[in-house]
Amino acid sequence: MSGKICFKCEKPGHIARFCTANDTDTDTDHDFEHDEDEICCECHCPRYICQLSPDHEFMPLGLCVLGIYDICSLLTLNLKVDVIVVCSSSDGLRESVLRAAGPHIQRAYAQAKRTKSRDEMIALECSNLPCQRILFLPWTPDEKLIFTEQTIKTFLSKAVKYVLDENYTSVAFPAIGCGQYGFDADFIARAMINHIKSESYPLSITITICPKFHHIFQAFQNANAKIPVIQSLPDTWLYVNDLNKLRYLVARNTHEWRIIVEEFNTTMSGLYRRINRIEHIQNDRWHKQYVIHREDFQNRVKMNTEKFLYHGCSAMAADSIIKDYFNRSLSGENGTQYGCGVYFSSNASYSHVYSVPNNHGERCMFYARVLIGNSTLGNTNMKVCPGNYHTTTDGDHIYVTYHDAQAYGQYLIYYQ
Q: SS3 breakdown of the chain: % helix, strand, coil, rounded to 5?
């Protein structure tokens, strides 16, 4: 709060909401005589704590609702939910909700802050807003997007755990990170919605968005319309009499084919001429080990951290991987900059460098399921993954695994 001036006592370091001057005065109207029911379009803060520029455009304060499972158009928040989650680290959002909740909640929050650490959540019953409780939950992003995505998942998981433990059935989340933290709305939308959908929480979930921020609403609408890849790609085998057959062609012009090609083209557009075929790998022994490992991961990490990532290699190496998994003992052939393990990337264009063409110019690349777990920055000295972590990373798009059953090569893309 440093740098802000209290309009109540005119001293720096806090705002009127937390000023102790005349605390016994129950008439709080004068506390906000300088406040206005408007929010800054630049920093998303209420006018009375916007410090960035007097030229900022302001607009009426309110909330809009975007249904995760039932997209609706922009509307004023009149939908009642059991719990409204507030990112307490966001000055603008926190102050806006406290102002709307009224003096009783403002005092209760200030009192709770004095008895709790900065990392603890605060849950308050509320009658002035269309909810039973407000859950104030801190969130701290990381400089690296990979780790920030993990913090978003943790934020959502903590809130959902509280809601379920209290036997509530509905919750509203803010679009965290799009305001004062300045993260790209598309990144935040994908991270939040993909996590919510992949976890399949038994709750009615909405995302609250301030009016006029149409680009944020559009980002969430786009992310919601696109079914997460992990959910849409099938786990089912096409069992036939030939039990030795490990590869099955993915039919063209199917939803499965389109999803894979669309993701591939995200970074590969212009780097290849055509996709010749896509094989669905069905190694029953490998898959069963992977599923067991995945269940163990979810029990330990308490969330779904599975991703589809790319792994480029030669056709000969691909044959070996399909029979005997991603073998960590062969690590080091293409470097160990982030650890001595098996390397995967979320960017197909990066894995393309390691996809060795055959005599006909055809290359191959795995589109693999990978269990990320908790990840940390890697280095060349890491022979095994550090304690309490499951993968190492470059902090951008590379993940390194250290267990042979930690990844499953579900698809093999042939292209040139």
A: 35, 20, 45
> Does 83 score more than 70 pLDDT?
yes
Tell me which of 2.60.120.10, 3.40.50.1000, 3.40.220.10, 3.90.1150.10 is the CATH number of domain 62-226.
Answer: 3.40.220.10
Residue with tokens 């009783």: 104
Compute φ and ψ for 164, nearest 5 degrees.
-70, -40
Query: What pLDDT shows up at residue 166?
Result: 94
pTM of the model: 0.63
Residue 215 gets the label, from left (phi > 0), alpha (psi -120 to 50) or beta, of: alpha
**Secondary structure (DSSP) of 170-190:** EEEEE-TTSSTT---HHHHHH
pLDDT score recorded for residue 327: 78
Topology (CATH) of 232-415 = Phosphoenolpyruvate Carboxykinase; domain 3 (3.90.228)
**Could you tell me the strand order of the sheet in which 342-345 lies?**
247-249, 275-281, 407-415, 363-371, 306-313, 342-345, 398-401, 391-393, 375-377
Return the pLDDT at 37. 46
Q: Nearest Cα to 183, choosing from 106, 96, 90, 119?
A: 90
Q: Which residues contact 63 (CB under 8 A, 6 or more apart)?
A: 76, 77, 208, 209, 210, 211
Question: If we measure between CA atoms, which residue out of 345, 347, 358 comes closest to residue 271?
Answer: 347
How many angstroms separate the CA atoms of 391 and 295, rounded? 17
